[in-house]
From TrEMBL:
One of its GO terms (molecular function) is methyltransferase activity. This is Methyltransferase family protein. It comes from the Bacteria. InterPro entries: SAM-dependent_MTases_sf (IPR029063). It comes from Kribbella pratensis.
Length: 359
């Protein structure tokens, strides 16, 4: 691994827990938009370069319950949290499957006439299982509801405590259909450099959110992700462009850092997808709320992209930057509407489909 890459990996190792807490909920609408763009795909696996803690998985797994879903990330700590997320989903799915089986058994008993004869209130209630002891913490009126998988559901399986935590994955409930019809062992998280994928992946979809802008050669990366698709497969990439907003916490950070970045690569992304059917190339904006300018700055420093700068330039530089930032920032809660670029493309089924129209 080059020095640059190992420093980047270390910065995301340090950021990972805080990233999950602070940024994952705030970035959720863009993750949703990326996953929505690959709903219709041929048979095959889904690959997620730069998956971080793998928030994409929660949306992909219910949609593609019987597929291999592979996340790739450079950072060992991100991979650890992504594996916890996968394990939580798997536990939720297994629990849902067993509850479903219990409900079916109960239905069988009812259908066989037992209920009419007597287990009544003490046995199988109107909703099949609930009255019989799975009780308040377990099932809703229909017997197997997703939100039956509450905080204690995940924690009881020993998955919650390690980091993504009861508040994160547990309490929200992932939906009973988390992974695979068998409770699924179809998810993998691989630690590695996702900047170039082997075309042999032959993926049905490649989805990547907020990773592209960190790679050394984004046009080459997006091309390799596209090349890793099978015919008919879909790619969706979302990244933060140079101008994510005119004013706001992101713009102010750029201003105080005053690091002129070469973003000429942004113009090279669509040309790099030569031969693809470009389905969308648009800016997506959603509201984002920060409790204060200091809260955002500290999250970016400890749990976000500023971590790599902090490692490279040291604490004194960050302290000075923070003072400049706060001197220029508004007081109180800060709401903004940053825009990220979403590119989605489909690999044509044949050369003829790929050829541009002649007239
Ligand atoms: C901002 S996070 C995004 C994570 C996730 N996709 C999301 O939307 O929350 C960017 C991730 O890209 C990863 N990353 C950066 N460069 C990478 C590379 N060359 N190969 C694989 N992962 C990389 C980082 O480790 C980090 O976890």
């Amino acid at each position: 691994m080059t020095d640059r890459l190992s420093r980047l990996a270390r910065s995301w190792d340090e950021a990972a827990e805080g990233y999950e807490q602070y940024f994952v909920p705030r970035f959720a609408p863009w993750v949703q938009a990326a996953v929505d763009a690959v709903h219709t795909i041929p048979f095959g696996m889904v690959v997620v370069p730069c998956c971080g803690t793998f928030p994409e998985l929660e949306l992909l797994a219910p949609w593609f319950p019987d597929r291999r879903i592979v996340g790739i990330d450079l950072s060992a700590e991100m991979v650890r949290l992504a594996n916890l997320r996968a394990a939580s989903l798997r536990a939720a799915s297994l629990r849902a499957a067993s509850l479903r089986a219990a409900s079916l058994r109960a239905d069988g008993v009812r259908a066989g006439g037992v209920r009419a004869d007597g287990p009544g209130a003490g046995g199988l209630g109107a909703d099949g299982v609930r009255a019989d002891g799975l009780g308040a913490g377990g099932l809703g009126a229909d017997g197997v509801r997703a939100d039956g998988l509450g905080a204690d559901g995940i924690a009881a399986d020993g998955v919650g405590a390690g980091g993504l935590g009861a508040g994160g994955l547990g309490a929200g409930g992932h939906g009973a259909d988390g992974l695979g019809s068998d409770g699924g062992s179809l998810v993998e998280v691989v630690q590695g450099d996702a900047a170039a994928l082997d075309p042999a992946w032959g993926a049905a979809a490649v989805v990547s959110v907020f990773g592209l802008q960190q790679l050394p050669d984004p046009p080459a990366a997006i091309r390799s992700w596209y090349d890793a698709l099978r015919p008919g497969g879909r790619l969706c990439v979302v990244y933060w462009p140079e101008f994510a907003e005119e004013t706001g916490p992101f713009a102010l950070l750029d201003e105080v850092i005053d690091g002129r970045r070469d973003r000429s690569w942004e113009d090279a992304l669509i040309p790099a997808l030569d031969g693809a059917v470009i389905e969308r190339d648009e800016l997506r904006s959603y509201p984002m709320v920060h409790p204060s300018a200091a809260a955002y700055f500290d999250a970016a420093d400890r749990s976000g992209p500023l971590r790599a700068t902090a490692l490279a330039r040291g604490d004194e530089y960050i302290a000075e930057l923070r003072a400049n930032y706060l001197a220029k920032a508004p007081a109180g809660e800060w709401v903004h509407h940053p825009q990220a670029r979403l590119i989605s493309a489909r690999k044509p089924l044949s050369r003829a489909e790929a050829a541009p129209p002649t007239s």
